[in-house]
Amino acid sequence: MIDTAMLMAAGLGKRMRPLTATRPKPLVKVAGKPLMDHALDRLEAGGVRKVVVNVHYLADTVEAHLKARRCGLEFTVSDERAKLLETGGGLMQAKPLLGNQPFFCVNSDNFWVDGPAETFAMMRSVWDPERMDALLLLVPQARAYCHSGMGDFRMDANGRLTRRKQGHVAPFVYIGIQILSPTLLVDPPGDVFSTNIFWNRAIAAGRLYGVSHQGLWFDVGTPAAIPVVESMLAHG
């Protein structure tokens, strides 16, 4: 069973200003709880036991929060204080800490509500290492709350993903949760780069897949999104 996760918590949170002037974005509260804790609670409930957390902006605050958190999760910090490595570079630095088995990768500012099935169990049931290097959780464009954009991917009947074509709209939005095979994390183009590099390689090999989220998802990228999320949660 996949029981390890990478929690991406090193970003600067520029779009969340002024709330991130004094706190890192993962510790901005939504529905009475820091965004990071919403994600960690979901991971723990989903059977994850080991979480690697990368830190950069206000790193001491994030580390102190993790130490004070009482739960069944084992935390390891991947320290990016010296240099923010972006998502791909962050994964490469953390690779030795993640082990040699597939793992979840979750954005710490992600906010979702499970559908009929628990999210991580559902993704484990779809994951097939014989066919996949990465499995991305997607939501239909029409259900990407507080999100603006033209979509990210098209998905065929077998779940295989291709990129949105320039000037076109794609039906699915990536929502910050994925399963990655460590075999994909090779040959970095440098220290600082995006996970898109790994996805592009998987697409070229026909090994990037997706699965549609059946619950709710909110893009909590700006302060304006927070009351929208809280209102929908309060009123159903």
Describe the structure.
It comes from Sphingobium naphthae. The longest helix is centred in the middle third of the chain and has 13 residues, at 86-98. Strand 2 and strand 3 (33-34) form a beta hairpin. The chain has helices at residues 35-45, 59-68, 86-98, 119-126, 196-204, 225-235; strands at 4-8, 29-30, 33-34, 50-55, 74-79, 103-107, 110-113, 134-140, 144-145, 153-155, 161-163, 172-180, 208-212, 216-219. The protein has 236 residues and is α/β, with parallel strands linked by helices. The two termini are 33 Å apart.
Q: What is the radius of gyration computed over CA atoms, rounded to a whole number of angstroms?
A: 17 Å
Helix content: 25-40%
Written as H for each helix and E for each strand, in order along the chain, the element string is EEEHEHEHEEHEEEEEHEEH
Q: Helical segment tally?
A: 6
Residue-averaged pLDDT, rounded? 92
Strand content: 25-35%
Q: What's the count of strands?
A: 14
Shape: globular
The main sheet comes to: 7 strands, mixed
Spatial separation of the terminal alpha carbons: 33 Å
- Please state the structural category: alpha/beta
The strand line-up of the biggest sheet is 5-4-1-6-12-8-13
List segments where confidence is low: pLDDT < 50 over at least 5 consecutive residues: none
